[in-house]
Amino acid sequence: MKPTSRITIRDVAATAGVSVATVSKVLNARYGVSAATSAHVQAVIRELGYEASLVAQSLRNHKTNVIGILVADLEPFSTELLKGAAKAIKGTGYELVVYSAGGRTSDHAGWEQRYLSRLSGTLVDGAVLVTPTVVEVDFGQAVVAVDPHTGPTGLPTVDSDNLAGARTGVRHLLDLGHRRIALIGGRPDLESAKLREQGYCELRAAGIPVDPLLIQPGNYDADDSTAAARRLLESPDRPTALFAANDISAIAAIEVAVAMGLRVPEDLSVVGFDNVPEAALARPPLTTVEQPIHEMGHRAIDLLIQLMHGEQTHDTHIRLSTRLVVRQSTAPVGRGT
């Protein structure tokens, strides 16, 4: 055999000196094989590194014990969510397979449905969709959405309290005396982005009119947020503070400000949303609204497995709390004067 060729059940049988039927019985823990022969075959399986084909296993058993997690891209939010999912899967008997659309969501609308169509009935027993672009899917198996698309949906969902989180972030800036506060928004097709913008617009509750010129689209994307920050900070009447719909957008805004010769937080206070690891490593470290991303991944897997097992679930729409994490990117207004 070539070293790079796939090890088959026939290779195992030939190396062990037994029939393919015997290897199959060992793999499926069936009767009719002596303990010594079974131990020998298992040793050969380990030696050769044999793994049963997921497709063959699915056709034989009608299940793969594999859960798919579909993400638009492997950016900080989805990466942190995968850590929580990986922790949740331990001891369940399931394995995780991650599928990425590999790029900007705007270029891949409907990517989840295409991927699910490929996987349906052959490779996974259920799926978690992370920030999907759709509200309904045709899959035929259990599906849970994390940070769901805007609109009515029958999909079970896991998200955080985006509205309360945005209110907390903006209130922090108001308490520091800022009144000209800008927003770099998120993906307009996601419920999270709409709720974070709604929370921002409650500036009105503090008696501050919302200036449309201070609201710029960032799409949860670093490049779009860089352009948005530049438009805001090049304005003759630039903001003294900025609330970004995610940490990547906030960090991009800080980089633009520094490149323009502005000091953060003396000239511009910045608040993000997520609390991904990059937030604490930013210069200065980023004040942000933390959503429990690891827990979101954990709860999504827990809920999916319950649905896959046909268990009764009291709540198929899980919303988790957020909290403000204050670091060095915010300061009272006028501190730099």
Largest sheet, in brief, is: 6 strands, parallel
Radius of gyration: 25 Å
Give the helices and strands as they follow along the chain: HHHHEHEHEEEHEHEHEHEHEHEE
What's the N-to-C terminus distance? 74 Å
Going by helix content, strand content and strand pairing, the class is: alpha/beta
Low-confidence stretches: none
Specify the overall morphology.
elongated
The count of strands amounts to 12
Mean pLDDT across residues: 88
Give me the side-by-side strand order of the main sheet: 2-1-3-4-5-11
Number of helices: 12
Oligomer: single chain
Binned, the helix content reads 25-40%
Give the percentage of residues in beta strands.
15-25%
Keywords:
337 residues; six-stranded mixed β-sheet; 12 helices; 12 strands; 39% helix; elongated
How would you describe this structure to a colleague?
This protein is of the alpha/beta class and 337 residues long. It contains 12 helices and 12 strands. 39% of the residues lie in helices and 16% in strands. Helix 7 packs parallel to helix 8 (191-201). It is elongated and about 80 Å long.
